Amino acid sequence: MKFYSTNSQDVKVSLKEAVLKGLAADKGLYMPEYIPELEKDFFDNIQDKTLPEIGFEVLKPFFCPDIPEDKFKALVEDALNFDIPAVKVTDDIYSLELFHGPTLAFKDIGARFMARILSHFVADQKKDINILVATSGDTGSAVANGFYKVPGINVFVLYPKGLVSEVQEKQFTTLGENITSIEVDGTFDDCQRIVKEAFLDKELNEKLILTSANSINLARLLPQSIYYYYGYAQLRKAGIKDDVVYCVPSGNFGNITAGLVAQTMGLPVKRFMAATNINDIVPEYLKSGLYSPKPSKATIANAMDVGDPSNFVRILDLYDSKHELVKKKIEGCSFTDDEIREGVKRVDEKENYILDPHGATGYMALEKGLQKGEKGIFLETAHPAKFPEVVEPVIGRKVVVPERLKAFMDGTPKSVASNASLEDLKAHLLK
Ligand SMILES: *Cc1c(COP(=O)(O)O)cnc(C)c1O
Question: How many domains does the chain have?
């Protein structure tokens, strides 16, 4: 399989190049040259397949034989070493819990895949590979942990000063070793911009091998499609087959893009909903047909504080930039901080289920948008214990903190300060 840039169908690169570069030279995002359809067989008994079995089958067309099949199979098993249960919250709404990995957030899955795919491709390189990652919270910790102590790879995590929760920050600033945390005096959009500039900087690229680990990298994006199948498999086990609606709390729209790819490959999802906080650029586009990026606004669901979602161009690419078509596939829904708090409180009281602020938008969008006969499944993208400052005052008690999170909280944070400029970042990288 080859991969093209969203800015030019003529540029076709190998999997290795797409993964190592992250972003195409023309600033486009890579897309698979075609999206294969899975056999009907695969879906007929999907409910009997394990998570790694599903993962191997659905990703094989993209990653093999560039990665030999037996090696890829082992890689998938190693990356997916925790469960992703679909938990029933109400008669019609299920929560797909993506937080059972090392940093308690869905980005663990993409990051664990990417680390293993990259280390397959760099095994024969002489120079170290440098991963630059901009984070609004969860990406940094997932990537840092996914790559921690992987030989030949250095990770630089850029995060906005004061805009990341204490728990999130500790999950990457306490690691050390091959992980450097850079505290940027600016917003997440600044961090993202500087990383993009760094990839296009001539001097940096001459001196260093740089790659990205943001959701723009295909090695992170494509594996995220696995759990859409696995969630569906679990609904099938529960006797649900048709009229399944997936709802995805969205920021950079990588997660939902992976779902749309799964649907294109044949996964019988009736439709998708995209839930956002007040950074409602895509819901606005769905309504009006106009895409107007804005500076991001800070909210209590801060991993979705994105004013110019990077994967939006991939969604346009999937549907030939036709607004009518995109609108048919995705329904948008946005929520204020007060609505999110109200939702967390209500679902705790009525359903005895603790949502995190991101998952709460997904749950509420389903509550609003599900039609009669439909079953909804929202992606619970993080564990509520990662956002105690939001969740605990709302539910009026402590959230039980899983052991693996406690371990981070006891560590000593370390980071370097930087202003929001490429020059400053370059100084750190070239040191
Ligand atoms: C990153 C993140 C999101 C948004 O995912 P995108 O792929 O950027 O749309 C939602 N919730 C949580 C907890 C996240 O960390």
Answer: 1
H or E element at residue 140: helix 138-147
Residue 225 lies in a domain: yes
Domain that holds residue 94: 83-104+221-400
Query: Which of 29, 96, 98, 106 should be mutated for ligand 1, with most atoms under 8 A from CB?
Result: 106
Q: Which segment of 79-83, 215-219, 295-299 scores lowest on mean pLDDT?
A: 215-219
Please check whether residue 361 lies inside any domain of the structure: yes
Asked whether residue 181 is assigned to any structural domain, the reply reads: no
Closest among 399, 390, 248, 260 to 316, alpha carbons compared: 260
- 282 C-alpha to ligand 1 centroid (Å): 14
Q: What is the CATH number for 231?
A: 3.40.50.1100
From CA 35, how far away is CA 18, in angstroms rounded? Answer: 16
Q: Does residue 382 belong to any structural domain of this protein?
A: yes
In terms of C-beta density within 10 A (0-12 exposed, 13-18 middle, 19 or more buried), how is residue 126 classed?
exposed
pLDDT for 214 beyond 90: no
Residue 216 pLDDT grade (very low, low, confident, very high; cuts 50, 70, 90):
confident
Just list the catalytic residues.
Answer: 107
pLDDT at 150: 79
Average pLDDT over residues 268-283: 98
* pLDDT exceeds cutoff 90 at 242: yes
Written as one string, the DSSP assignment of 63-76 is HTTTS-HHHHHHHH
